[in-house]
Amino acid sequence: TIARTDDLPASEKFLSGGGDTGRLLRAKQWQATALGCPADWPDGLRFAVRLMLHAHDPVVVIWGRDSLAFWNDAYRDLLPQAESGHGLGRPAAEILGTVWSDIAPHIQRVMKGEVAERSEFAGQRMNADGVRESGHWNC
């Protein structure tokens, strides 16, 4: 398990930085997942994760046919389960709850190579204390 950036092999330097979420990504046992070792991830995913980790705004990356979710520190406050990193690399439908039903059609359009639309949503989310709060997001 590699949680420190300076211990990363050159092929996994894209996981450097990223605060607590970066540490969780580096510590996760990716070999036990369908994605496998981060050194073997497709260049597009490596690039997207690197950008996401260093973004100051909340960012979630949805990847591949299974719509796997990755997020940064700024986004984790929006997800009750994000503190533990349990859902990193899991299907977005499992992680994003009711938000997924709103954004899934937009993600599916992009995955088919169609033009992305910018949409804004308002609704509820559940914070880490299990309390429902109003939320606002866009994609």
**Beta-strand level of the residues, as a percent range?**
15-25%
Number of helices: 5
pLDDT < 50 stretches: none
What is the number of strand segments? 4
User: What does the largest sheet look like?
Assistant: 2 strands, antiparallel
Distance between the termini: 33 Å
Overall morphology: globular
Strand order of the largest sheet: 1-2
Helix and strand element order: HHEEHHHEE
Structure characterization notes:
- The protein contains 5 helices and 4 strands, in the order ααββαααββ.
- The protein is an alpha+beta fold.
- Strands 1-2 form a two-stranded antiparallel sheet.
- It is globular and about 40 Å long.
- The N and C termini lie far apart (33 Å).
- The relative contact order is 0.12.
What can be said about this structure in brief?
This protein is an alpha+beta fold.
Jot down its keywords:
about 30% helix, about 15% strand, 5 helices, 4 strands, two-stranded antiparallel sheet, alpha+beta, two-stranded antiparallel ribbon
What secondary-structure arrangement, pairings included, does this model have?
Blueprint: H1 19-27, H2 43-53, E1 60-63, E2 68-71, H3 73-76, H4 92-95, H5 98-111, E3 120-126, E4 132-138
Antiparallel strand pairs: 1-2, 3-4
